[in-house]
């Protein structure tokens, strides 16, 4: 088709209006490249329409510009828009932003990890202390259980002869028990019902043999004055009676008679 | 980022100041509602901005690209909102001069002289130009509306544009 024919066909006018079909559009775009006259005519048509549009312009409210501006800026923040000639800048800015985010994220993860470490170490520490405490409690319980068993063995032994000692004037409510083994002569004392004792003093057990008091040993108390469990004293083949007196720490060779706490005399 | 933003704003400012009134005029003539027109204008400019990379200056002038984008977006909106296509294209003075005469508070461009000249355009030619370039009518619709045979829409359009250009050359 000759350039002049194209120009007079009216197709260029439709093209400007966007009313051509896909094929026609492609055809016109081809002609624009091919014929400078067609290209020049197309510009003239567009200028005519443009001026017509400008002649019918209606100025929008001033607020519209600001609204658009803020919407565009908001959009720019949210996505990277590839605007011709500026796409590279946006990409650079985008990648810097990416690294910034990546670095920030790493630091955040590191901090979170540290926090977890501290937290877990704290939990581990607590758990380990708890375990240690439990083990100590268990050991204590086992020890006291074993002491109880020993006590029970003495009490339950078929050879043990219990001897009750009752309170004397200085301590009417006091009491004590002797477990005397008939087969071996071993003497055990249960001091749990003896009264509290002052510091520097100690209970001493006496066996009355042939009318005379014979030292049967010191009853152990803790430093706080707590009385120990059933404990083994000296061995006697024969004895008519037993008595406990309060003596100075370490004991006395003869009993202080007015400090007798219990006896079966 | 700040500088980019600044450049964006300058570029946008330029684009808007130059073309917003003309495009707003186009939209206003289609929707005949100032607020709706300005809402659409906002949408149009955001779309222009976001799709700027798809504009190819070898295929046409920037304004032509923006005009067709404006037209299509407005038609889409009118259709989606259930508006009936404005069939009020008149054969008399309406489409051009009713704007300059109306007292709806919309500021006019200082183109009254040009408008008067355009008033000398034959009504049927102005109708053709309005329908094709500013109302988004298809060739079929133009033919039906005007009673011109479909085959001759093209040539009638050509004559109308030639006439328009003559008038513009005189001003």
Give the secondary structure arrangement, pairings included.
The complex is a heterodimer of chains A (265) and B (171).
Chain A: H1 3-9, H2 11-17, H3 22-34, H4 36-55, H5 62-78, H6 87-156, E1 160-167, E2 175-181, E3 187-190, E4 201-209, E5 212-218, E6 231-232, E7 241-248, E8 260-263
Antiparallel strand pairs in A: 1-2, 1-8, 2-3, 3-6, 4-5, 4-7, 7-8
Chain B: H1 2-31, H2 34-50, H3 62-80, H4 94-101, H5 112-118, H6 123-134, H7 139-146, H8 150-170
Helix pairs in contact in B: 1-2, 1-3, 2-3, 6-8
Task: Describe the protein.
The complex is a heterodimer of chains A (265) and B (171). Chain A has 265 residues and is an alpha+beta fold. Among the domains of chain A are: 3-58, no CATH class; 160-263, no CATH class. In chain A, 51% of the residues lie in helices and 18% in strands. Chain A has six helices and eight strands; from the N terminus they run H-H-H-H-H-H-E-E-E-E-E-E-E-E. An eight-stranded antiparallel beta sheet of chain A has the order 5-4-7-8-1-2-3-6, with helices on one face. The radius of gyration of chain A is 56 Å and the shape is rod-shaped. The termini of chain A are far apart. In chain B, 71% of the residues lie in helices and 0% in strands. The radius of gyration of chain B is 17 Å and the shape is globular. The model of chain B is unreliable at 84-110 (pLDDT under 50). In chain B, helix 1 packs across helix 3, helix 2 (34-50) packs across helix 3 (62-80) and helix 6 packs across helix 8. Chain B is built from eight helices and no strands. The termini of chain B are far apart. Chain B folds into two domains: 1-86, Rna Polymerase Sigma Factor, Chain: A (Orthogonal Bundle); 91-171, Winged helix-like DNA-binding domain superfamily/Winged helix DNA-binding domain (Arc Repressor Mutant, subunit A, Orthogonal Bundle), CATH 1.10.10.10. With 171 residues, chain B is an all-alpha fold. The longest helix of chain B has 30 residues, at 2-31. Classes of the chains: A alpha+beta (265), B mainly alpha (171). Chains A and B meet through helix 2, helix 3, helix 4, helix 5 and helix 6 of A and helix 1, helix 2, helix 3, helix 5 and helix 6 of B.
């Amino acid at each position: 088709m000759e350039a002049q024919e194209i120009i007079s066909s009216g197709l260029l006018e439709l093209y400007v209006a966007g009313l051509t079909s896909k094929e026609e559009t492609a055809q016109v775009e081809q002609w624009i490249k091919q014929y400078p006259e067609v290209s020049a005519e197309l510009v003239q048509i567009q200028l005519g329409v443009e001026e017509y549009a400008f002649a019918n312009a209606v100025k929008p409210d001033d607020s519209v510009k600001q609204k658009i501006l803020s919407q565009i800026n908001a959009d720019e923040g949210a996505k990277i828009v590839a605007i011709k000639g500026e796409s590279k800048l946006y990409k650079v800015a985008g990648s810097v932003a990416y690294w910034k985010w990546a670095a920030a994220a790493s630091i955040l993860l590191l901090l979170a990890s540290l926090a977890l470490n501290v937290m877990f170490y704290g939990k581990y520490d607590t758990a380990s202390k708890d375990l240690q405490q439990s083990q100590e409690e268990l050991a204590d319980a086992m020890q006291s259980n074993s002491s109880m068993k020993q006590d029970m063995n003495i009490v339950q032994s078929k050879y043990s002869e219990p001897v009750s000692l009752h309170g004397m004037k200085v301590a009417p409510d006091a009491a004590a028990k002797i477990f005397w083994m008939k087969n071996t002569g071993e003497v055990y004392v249960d001091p749990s019902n003896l009264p509290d004792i002052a510091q520097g003093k100690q209970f001493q057990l006496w066996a009355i043999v042939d009318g005379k008091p014979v030292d049967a040993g010191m009853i152990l108390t803790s430093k706080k004055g707590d009385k120990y469990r059933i404990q083994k004293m000296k061995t006697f083949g024969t004895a008519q009676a037993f008595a406990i007196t309060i003596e100075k720490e370490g004991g006395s060779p003869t009993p202080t008679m007015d400090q007798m706490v219990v006896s079966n005399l | 980022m700040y500088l980019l933003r600044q450049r964006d704003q300058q570029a946008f400012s330029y684009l808007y100041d130059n073309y917003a009134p003309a495009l707003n005029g186009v939209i206003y003539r289609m929707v005949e509602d100032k607020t709706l027109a300005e809402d659409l204008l906002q949408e149009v400019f955001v779309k222009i901005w976001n799709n700027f990379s798809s504009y190819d200056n070898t295929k046409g002038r920037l304004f032509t690209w923006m005009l067709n984008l404006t037209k299509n977006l407005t038609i889409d909106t009118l259709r989606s909102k259930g508006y009936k296509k404005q069939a009020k294209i008149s054969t008399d003075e309406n489409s051009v001069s009713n704007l300059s005469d109306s007292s709806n508070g919309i500021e006019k461009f200082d183109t009254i002289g040009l408008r008067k000249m355009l008033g000398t355009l034959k009504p049927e030619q102005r109708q053709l130009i309005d329908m094709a370039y500013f109302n988004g009518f298809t060739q079929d619709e133009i033919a039906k509306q005007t009673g011109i045979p479909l085959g001759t829409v093209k040539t009638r359009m050509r004559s109308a544009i030639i006439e328009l250009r003559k008038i513009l050359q005189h001003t």
